[in-house]
Amino acid sequence: MFVAHRPLLFTVAYEMLGSAADAEDVLQETWLRWVEVDLSRVLDHRAFLVRITTRQALNRLRAMKRRRETYVGPWLPEPLATTPDVAQAVELAESVSMAMMLVLETLSPTERAVFVLREVFDVGYEDIAAAVGKNAASVRQIAHRARKHVDARRPRKAVSATETRAALESFQRVLETGDLQGLLDVLAPEVVLVGDGGGIRRAARRPTVGADAVARFMIGALGKNDVPPSFAPTSVNGSPALLVRRGGEIDGVLAAHVSDGRITGLYYVRNPEKLNRVESETPLTLR
Asked: Which of 28, 47, 157, 286 places its Cα 20 to 30 Å from the Cα of 204?
């Protein structure tokens, strides 16, 4: 039963934590508690497993919030390789996108748990209440507040994987040629670049804003090495992305948010501690 629901439990934990490594730890903790349960007294195994997972993820999320206060530079979620079929589940693909995961970071731990369980997985209010230690009426209020908060900050419309892939292909071509004007053409005027090196690899300590600033930064940063970068298309967090290599070694993952055919957000994860899973498929599923 645990194995049957493992993909769901992993996805719940990952959406709450933004870290695949921590999500795996939560699943280990969930398993240790699950094996001690008297299953004859459990009416709904799926709901009970989600409850255990949520409680463990909440505990870990509260501890992680404190750790992130000392994180060097901007923090981005750990990129997670996903199979192409995830993009077909539009709601799930949006919920694990880099842009949405950053919005979820602005919620309190309890708000995040309630939002993920209700909006992404359609868990009932009573079951959510049992998972977060609140009554159902309180959970409804939290869900309303969290939904309003997220709606004010989430990307305005969902973009197809095809549109994102086309924009990234254009972006890749102009990066490889160092064409500044071409880069400006593919970037939206208000584009924002967020880099995450975690203090281990070089990355801007603050987001870079504006097409001209982002274009010059990207061309300059990628050219500051004798070994030119190479780019390969991949799929992370339910959307097309670019895997960046130097000398055969992974340098980072570049994800993007696209609107009206132009890139409005770039998310460049270079922290090597977050790059362990970008070449292995971890399918995400709602079931």
From this structure: 157
Joined together, the tokens standing for residue 22 give 């921590």
Residue type, 23: A
Q: How far apart are CA 182 and CA 213, in angstroms?
A: 14
Please report which residue ranges of the chain form alpha helices under DSSP H.
2-17, 20-34, 45-68, 90-95, 98-104, 109-115, 125-132, 136-151, 161-177, 180-186, 211-222
Residue 187 tokens read as: 């970037």
- Whole-angstrom Cα Rg for the chain: 20
Which amino acid is it at 113? Answer: A
- Which amino acid would we find at residue 165? R
Q: Each residue of 129-158: pLDDT tens digit?
A: 999 999 999 999 999 999 999 999 887 776
Percentages (nearest 5) of helix, strand, coil residues in the chain: 55, 15, 30
Q: To which residue do tokens 């795996």 refer?
A: 24
Pull the structure tokens for residue 110.
């309890």
Q: What is the pTM of this model?
A: 0.89
Is the CB of residue 119 less than 8 Å from the CB of residue 144? Answer: no
Q: Which two tokens stand for residue 25?
A: 């730890």
Q: How far apart are CA 52 and CA 266, in angstroms?
A: 35
CB-based contacts of 129, cutoff 8 Å, min separation 6: 135, 136, 138, 139
